[in-house]
Amino acid sequence: MIRIRALHKYYGDNHILRGIDLDVKQGEFLVILGPSGAGKSTLLRCINGLVQADAGELQAVGFDAMDTRQYRNLRQQVAMIFQHHNVMLRLSVLKNVLTGRLGQMSVFASICQWFSTADVELAMDCLRRVELDHKAHARTDALSGGQRQRVGIARALAQKPKVILADEPVASLDPKTSRMVLHYLRAACDELGITVICNLHQVDYAREFGDRIVGLSGGKLVFDGTSDELRDSALNLIYSGTTFPQILPVTAETNTSTELLVQGVAS
Ligand code: ADP
What we know:
Blueprint: E1 2-11, E2 14-24, E3 29-33, H1 40-47, E4 55-60, E5 63-64, H2 71-77, E6 78-81, H3 93-98, H4 107-112, H5 117-129, H6 145-158, E7 163-167, H7 175-192, E8 195-200, H8 203-209, E9 212-217, E10 220-225, H9 232-239, H10 257-266
Helix pairs in contact: 5-6, 6-7
Adenosine-5'-diphosphate binds at residues 11, 16, 34, 36-42.
């Protein structure tokens, strides 16, 4: 589904991605975990051509993501969800979701925003998936932050993508709402077979929702494994030299050595 080899990206003199090798299978829910500035967002943006990598190979859903001529077709198959949801606040919820169809429509139909009945039915179905169909005709600025992010997910689903890239989708949400948003993304993966690649900096969400977790640190992949394999030694590698991002609630079930790690890394 996605094949990345020796991928490099520079911003000026800053070497951001330093030789990334990564394969992602169809239907996988992959979490990219790493501290702020590790290059997670840059990597996601390279996958759908929002940012062009400087060297290496990057194939996604049958397209060459290093070739700008393939970006339009690539982006039809690869939807993106952003931290700040990027929904249009003055539009209705339904209109926002329908914008997910624009890439599949003719230029003329998209300029006139002539959505077919089938498009409207699809948009309503996507809203049902995130349990917001009852808000279809509400203005989006009347929704909470979590609800706006759910609109962002419904819009991504309306695109009928093969892959959803989610860039820190819960960074500004409270824990309960964050879990709800991640649950809908997980359901898109499980029920629709959509490959999800989700950037997170919260270790406990990565463990809870990811089939597989890769750790990015200083532009390099330093961990690749399951949530069970994401032990303290791996977290030390991913977050070495940084303040640990989120302290797991320590219960009888959770490993108290995480506390030691937090103290050790942050001090
Ligand atoms: P993360 O998502 O892990 O927080 P980013 O990919 O956003 O990391 O950023 C990695 C590094 O690249 C950071 O040092 C950031 O300042 C830098 N960076 C990101 N976008 C740009 C840009 N458009 N121009 C210059 N530097 C950038």
